[in-house]
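User: what does the whole thing look like in 3D?
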Amino acid sequence: MKTYSGDFTIPVSRDMVWNFLMDPHKVGPCLPDLLSMDVSDNHHFRAKVRVGVGPIRGAFDLANSITVEEEGKSASMSVKGGGMGSGVDMNANMLLEDLEEEQGTLLKWTCDVVVSGPIATIGGRLIDGQARKITEQVFENIRNALVSLKSEVAVTNEEAE
Amino acid sequence: MAINQCELRPMGKSIHRKEDPRFIRGQGRYVDDIVLPDMLYMSIVRSPYAHAKITGINTDAAYQVPGVKLIITGEDLEKMKLAWIPTMAGDVQMVLATNKVLYQYQEVAAVVAETRAAAVDAAQLVEVEYEALPVVVDPFRALQPDAPVLRDDREKKSNHIWHWEAGDREKTEEIFQNAPVVVSQDVRFQRVHPSPLEPCGCIADYNKGTGRLTWYVTSQAPHAHRTVLAMVTGLPEHKIHVISPDVGGGFGNKVPVYPGYVCAIVASLKLGQPVKWIETRTENIASTGFARDYHMKAEIAADENGKVLGLRVKTIADHGAFDAAADPTKFPAGLFSIVTGSYDFQQAFVEVDGVYTNKAPGGVAYRCSFRVTEAAYLIERTMDVLARRLNMDPAELRLRNFIKKEQFPYQSPTGWTYDSGDYEQTFKLALEKIGYHELRKEQAEKRARGELMGIGISTFTEVVGAGPSHSFDIMGIKMFDSAEIRVHPTGKVIARLGVRHQGQGHETTFAQIIGEELGLSADDVLVEEGDTDTAPYGLGTYASRSTPTAGGAAALCARRIREKAKKIAAHLLEVGEEDVSWNGEAFEVKGLPSRKVTMGEVALAAYTNLPEGMEPGLEATYYYDPPNLTFPHGAYIAVVDIDTGTGAVKVRRFLAVDDCGNVINPMIVEGQVHGGLTEGFAIAFMQDIPFDEDGNCLAPNWMDYLVPTSLDSPHWETDRTVTPSPHHPIGAKGVGESPNVGSPAAFVNAVVDALSPFGVEHIDMPIFPWKVWEILRKNGVTE
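Assistant: Here's the predicted 3D structure for the full assembly of 944 residues, as structure tokens:
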């Protein structure tokens, strides 16, 4: 098992971040190389993503579920699945904190990743860097989406004015 | 220079290998070359997890692939009582996982389809739901009381499999308590794999009409496989026909019966069509019998003059998820107690504990008589540690401790009776031939200049040729071997043996033995092996046992024929049998050597002109049960130079002086030594199968598990001494595994010797350049 972690600030309110994270239609597209997704309810969705490590190329079918730990503050997301005889098991924890003077929100995350099967073995020494990159990419995408959402909100507000 | 096969008195001559033309021209016929009408193909679904519960298997999508005929799961096999099969080590192993998987790449389902591509495609669509369980990859962790118990099918709720010991614990203890010098060294023999060029595979062809199963399989032991199949499947043994065609390398990998074999057979029984299964490279390395994986600790007690007194060895044997080692029944740690090697210890005590982990099962004898390689490596490595501690030349230390020529037959403190040997003679030849003292001088000069050069010695003793049936059996079957010889009317011979060669040259060497005994050329004798319908029963080829067992059978079988031939010769020469003698090429009348008949003339008479009352024909069968094992030995010396910038090791010279008793074909012996040394080189410098903490196998292919080519391999120098085995019919001992057994220690000793100015006493294999580079960097040699 590998554990990765990070944090970043987003110049939007904690409520806005929380609502984003709780919406599979918004979080789903943050998975890198998403091919398709299928939302079953507010907390569960399936996603098909393209994967490539070393000589292994193909698609992973992932079951995602979001669990509320503390309303508006902390949540976890599990991503489980695989393909091509390989498996992946990710458990991410997200914690939101208000920044001072309404500067936005701090998102702290940690993620445990277990990769198994040929993708872990044939990918060999590439897998650690790759898993870290993909995990970081997920949160980078979440941040970018929220930032662009904020500017969209700003534009809408401007238009409304 | 090799000589023509037509020459008479072929014994001891470098005759061209009969099998080479077909192999070199691509005319070998391997399992995958065989195509039968209506043949189907099988592909196996394997677990990505090293330890997980299986909560569901859905085959619907896979069945939708055009051409898919059958998908077998563990549940199906359970109904046939075939979900588990016995291993050769007395354990049981899963054929297809039922409730849980215990290692990555474990077999979960088998898909049979009309084409190989359809089978592979459909296998990817079999949906298996897993629930991951905690993984144990470290055998020491597996032995901790709070470690998860992996094998809940066993009564014993522990990952400990067995404890085995040899020698005298108390007496050894006493020696250690009073010894002036004691050295101790932890030595790991990493997990490696025989990795033959041709992976495992078979075609199961069940004929519903005749009720007979023909099983083409790349097997080192076809007769044993047939018996095991009969026991496991309940098919009558005479209704199973095993054919092992040309085998593209075995090295111990093709001794066990693997789950894929059982699945292919079940599929053919169900469908009544031939089913072919050929492994991929990754399947071969990641799931079939690995070798070694021993965590060893050796302690030597000695006096100040370097005379060794006692040896104590404690070992943890990592067997993976099932104990699927190919060891004789009474020897769970194989012949590991040969660990006292070439040295005259007063006492020794050896203990080994087998352990389960979440790794592929095995522990096969990779070019090795069951754990002899681990033993030879350990003692040869530790002798160097002792030499360093005593500040003594490792060559001198060895010369002081060899078992002496006059001590043979020698009783070892762990219970072996060494047949013959002259260690000093062999070693002195090696020292002289390589110019040992000049090399030491050169090394001293280079050290003064800051250059790193090392000299490594290994003077190993081997134990091969299992075996006497009083001690050795596999699953109850005694380890003898056999030969059947038929001399046809024109003096041409077909000989069949119970062993099965995989490149060792049996078609030539056994023809030489028989030709020599019958006064024929090797060209007159056709050797056939591998077909259970025609060949006499035998235990197969591994552990360098073919020449010690089947070679003995061939010689004695030929002598049995010669006895009858002598009677016919007397009849043809019109003299009494007591007046006939054999001159090596013909029967002659004693005192009248011009009056003679050849074996060819006798053969014709055996079918046309017999003495009255004699049974026609000229055939014999011989089952040979050797009285003891044979004990080949050798002295190997490696010279290495280390690049002080990169840590890369260059093997500048390597000399192997082997003593394998009488030699049948020197060229073949040399070839065997070259091959084994190349494997030993790979183990020392290139090969390891590591696992990450989740049980992912990190070297399941030739990108990560390196196989040396001629570009990587050093130039090999060889020589030999001859100490015949006193009990073998032709004085031969066996040589195939000696170079693999003896060479790793020479390589490692050489590298450690080069790095000894930095206080280095040991480096675990494989010695990758980065390991050496880290030592150099720590000592300020490089940045």
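In plain terms: The interface with chain A takes residues 45-50, 104, 124, 130, 132, 282, 286, 692-701, 703-704 of chain B (CB under 8 Å). Chain B has a mean pLDDT of 96.
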